[in-house]
Amino acid sequence: MESKFLSDGRKVTIIGQLNNTEWIVQEVFVTAQGDEIPSGERFTTKSLHDSPVETYKDRQEKKLNESIRTLQNKETAVQESIKKLERERIAYEKTFKSTKALSDSLLKQIDEGALNLLCDVMAGNVKYLVEDSGYGVYEPKLFLDAIKSYDSYDIEIKLLSLFGRSNGSLVYKMNQYYDGSGGSREVILIRTDEELAQYYTDKVKSIYEKNPNYISMSYINVAKKYGGIVAQDIIETAQAVKVESLKSNIEEHRKKFEASTKELDDFIGEITCTK
Question: With 60 as the cut, is the pLDDT of residue 36 above it?
Answer without folding.
Answer: yes
